[in-house]
Fold:
Amino acid sequence: MTADNPSLRPWRDIDRRKCRQIMVGDVPVGGDAPISVQTMTNTLTSDAKATIDQIRRCEEAGVDIIRVSCPDVESTAAMKQIVRAAQVPIVADIHFHYKRALEAADAGAACLRINPGNIGDASRVKEVVDAAKSNGCAIRIGVNAGSLEKDLLEKYGEPCPEALVESALDHIKLLQDHDFHEFKVAVKASDVFLAVSAYMQLADAVDCPLHLGITEAGGLIGGTVKSAIGIGNLLWAGIGDTIRVSLSAEPEEEVRVGYEMLKSLGIRTRGVKIISCPSCARQGFDVIRTVQALEERLQHINTPLSLSVLGCVVNGPGEARETDIGLTGGGKGKHMVYLSGLTDHVVEDEDMLDHIVKLVEDKAAAIEAGDAVAFDPHAEAAE
Structure:
């Protein structure tokens, strides 16, 4: 057996929530579309060059949709240049100033992230909806436990799932009253239990796509754990059509973590899936450093394939049987390499890292060329 195929294992099936589909630029969201991965830039949007450079790094990491903040006229003025340069749809993040939404829509934003309730009276909401309609923009309603409306806080006493859902439904009605239906909704909170409960309630109440996230989740490690628990639980329950992992880290890290979540659940595959052991005294090589180096050197691989890196023969052969390429630590500086689940050849310490990287690159190239069966790691040595 080679690459893992969840479709052959019914106990891994995820029954995805049925919802209607919208378009964010050329990316379908909802329905049977793949769950998309989003992030948000942290540069000054008015600095178009810095923002475009950051967007480019996120694109290289595989991002599907990118959001940029538009707090002022200078930011929306830079949007045309940013949208032209980006290879993925751009979402304009709007708060309070409805004119920024109008400017962003005219500048080519694929989606406007707004709270309809905080951009002014009904006439201003209508102006934003009209601008979205005329420019082909989608809208994301972004409800957040940290910025709930005063009347809802008075009604419920504190942020709670019911308050978040009621806020979302009120905002949905504002758009539907203007015959606008190209929207997705998020009900985010930094508390995992609050966010998950709110999303579950909302999923039963509406038929629109849902954007998942645990807001203000924390740093790279803590935030990844919180997000994996919250977003992972929802995805496992079939809820969610697009995700953003909110980390106090560089945006491209959010993208990588998002894809790792989707890969772990068998929802989407991109790049190399590494199975590795935590290492112990039995290890035949430095597993931790080796895996760190492989993760860094294989970031450019987009082709889905699996690689196992195990320090010894206790679990190494078993894991290697389930992966495209496997490496198991042996004795005296010699380690076994497995291809398509079968023992193939031995590699020595000093050559190991470069050798595994080349095997992965060659395997990926063969898959992309539609000739994976003909992949022969020994061909170069035989010439």
Q: What stands out?
A: The chain has two domains: 16-264, 272-382. The chain is about 40% helix and 20% strand. The two ends are 29 Å apart (CA to CA). The longest strand covers residues 138-144.
